[in-house]
Amino acid sequence: MQAARIKQWGAGLALWAISASAFAQSADPKPWQLNMGRGVTPTAQNAYEAHMFVLWVCVVIGVLVFGAMGYAIFKFRKSKGAVASQFSHNTTAEIIWTVIPVIILVVMAFPATTKLIEMYDVRDSEMTVKVTGYQWMWGYEYIGEDVEFVSRMDRESDRLRQNRNTTRAELDAHGAYLLEVDRELVLPTDTKIRFVITADDVIHSWWVPALGFKQDAIPGIVNEAWTEIREPGIYRGQCAELCGKDHAFMPIVVRAVPRAAFDQWLADQRGGEAPPPIAAPAAEAPADDAATAQIDVPAPSAG
Asked: Which of the 8 DSSP states describes residue 136?
């Protein structure tokens, strides 16, 4: 009986471990995700590695500390007649529990600092995209390419959210409710892309988890970031700074495509004609293939 129960527990733990590993591999966050995602950029990978390193350091420390506590509580319990030692200080112990934490912190801080410096190094970028936050939309400009547009939440999501009679079936049928946009930000893979990020009205924050960074968009200030997407796909994000009543309705959709497909898309955009739909990438991050309407919307005025 006990052996069967142990086997059941073992199977449950194995299933949990497999699920956690699967979630860790995914690019976009998933419901009930148990761990940080690896993402699809060097920045995201660095953040994941730093996170896992610190996590395992904490696990080891936790096992040692709580193991020692449990052993002491059980071994030297009062019912066994144990008598607690009485002492005011111990120089050796104090040196040990001061030096060891310092060493651990230095070991954690060095790689984290190195990765943080690399994360803000925008040198040698191959292209620049300007991101401007508005209430409640995003403006994108491909610097030097004469291509810019505004990206809003798609009209179907907006209709569904404002209709009090919307059913769960309608939301499920949409596939990407509140996460879809009318125009995606199309970016090339295997290209170092510099972002310059600002805002027109209030503070926003441009965040796509799979890209591994979140950067504030502040009026009058230009912040920089960079990314290099390694895998074609669709990656979703949102505004991550409370910016007004429709803050929750500022989705971001990045479509990463091979460089040749991006160059063709860019040429079509410059030609002033509605570009043909971009072929679906080899491996999309989320399992949805909702079409993206290409609607030219004039950028909002600076006022």
From this structure: T
Q: How many CB atoms lie within 10 A of CB 220?
A: 7
pLDDT per residue as tens digits for the range 226-269:
999 999 999 999 999 999 999 999 999 999 999 999 999 999 99
The answer to whether 252 and 206 have CB atoms below 8 angstroms apart is yes
Give just the sign of the alpha carbon dihedral 65, 68, 74, 78. Answer: negative
Measured CA to CA, the distance from residue 49 to residue 55 in angstroms comes to 10
Q: State which CATH number among 3.40.50.720, 2.60.40.10, 2.60.40.420, 1.20.1420.30 fits the domain covering 127-270.
A: 2.60.40.420
279 secondary structure, DSSP code: P
26: exposed, middle or buried (Cβ count in 10 Å: 0-12, 13-18, 19+) = middle
CATH class of 36-119: mainly alpha
Q: Which 8-state DSSP code applies to residue 231?
A: S
Residues 6 or more apart whose CB falls under 8 angstroms from that of 220 comprise: 198
Domain boundaries, the chain: 36-119, 127-270
Record the tokens describing residue 122, joined without a space.
């925008």
